[in-house]
Amino acid sequence: TAKLQTVAKAAGKLYFGTATDNSELTDTAYTAILDDNTMFGQITPANSMKWDATEPTQGTFTFSGGDQIASLAKTNGMLLRGHNCVWYNQLPSWVTSGTWTNSTLTAVIQNHCSTIVSHFKGQVYSWDVVNEPFNDDGTWRTDVFFNTIGESYVPIALNAARTADPNAKLYINDYNIEGPGAKATAMLNLVTSLKQQNVPLDGVGFQCHFIVGELPQGLAANWARFTALGLEMAVTELDIRMTLPSTPALLAQQKTDYTTVISACMSVAGCVGVTVWDWTDKYSWVPSTFSGQGAACPWDQNFVRKPAYDGIAGAF
Ligand code: XIL
Q1: How far is the CA of 277 from the centre of ligand 1 (A)?
Q2: ipTM score of the complex?
Q3: Which GO molecular function annotations are given, in alphabetical order (predicted)?
Q4: Which of 68, 100, 114, 258 could form a disulfide with 311 if both were Cys (CB 3.0 to 4.6 A apart)?
Q5: What pLDDT, in 10s, does the model give residues 132-161?
């Protein structure tokens, strides 16, 4: 059967990729599939470029985990997505419980974004500079950044990232913006305003953590509203979970749902690629986050391709 990067490329997309994590790289049966650049043309570190991993103490940066993923991408000839600079989650406690003013926290954001983006300069295709800024109702998430600085923390981070690596594509990434609705509208309004103000921004990431049989309607039409602004977009964290145990019927519906997502990317010219949030159920984040759910990836926990695999391969 066709390999997924091969078919994505032939279809005019830049990449089909996957998240991976440092702890998974000692599993040689896993890496035997991961390292095939006809299967995966892009990787994203699931954790090792996040704030708690890269700046656990203020001003002290650790890049060993991120460097391992970056060098894997280089060795394998794969694109790398940097994930992420500014996010409310997986923050070290010095950030969340610090006593900040607008000006001191601005300097912290600038130093963090600038240092990590500079470190990986030349190695990263695109950076999720800001991750998950909105609540599901489209209001701003009231995290330490918004509460201290207001929405201008977003351009502050984007400007610092652009200066640090002018060639990296800069993204804002979120979930529950894939179909139309209040949260998608909030994101559209934000990126429209950033573009109008000439803030550096190249793309929007649609995470696509979906549930079998419950995909949002109108994916392609919604995505096209963003690319109409001159932005690119990507499916950045695709997985489609089900209530366990999996059944043949659920796996068949999952295949249909994966097909729907790839087809939506195919019908939007500015959709540059699709990343699954790990390719095997063995290392999916889903079971530990959504109780009773799982089997969300295109390969099962024994690295056997599921019907979803053929859905992806057939839809590019
Ligand atoms: C997840 C990782 O996969 C897990 O290993 C970790 O424990 C929690 O974070 N949205 C994101 C990703 O942007 O960073 C998250 O990754 C999944 C949801």
Answers
A1: 8
A2: 0.99
A3: cellulose binding; endo-1,4-beta-xylanase activity
A4: 258
A5: 999 999 999 999 999 999 999 999 999 999
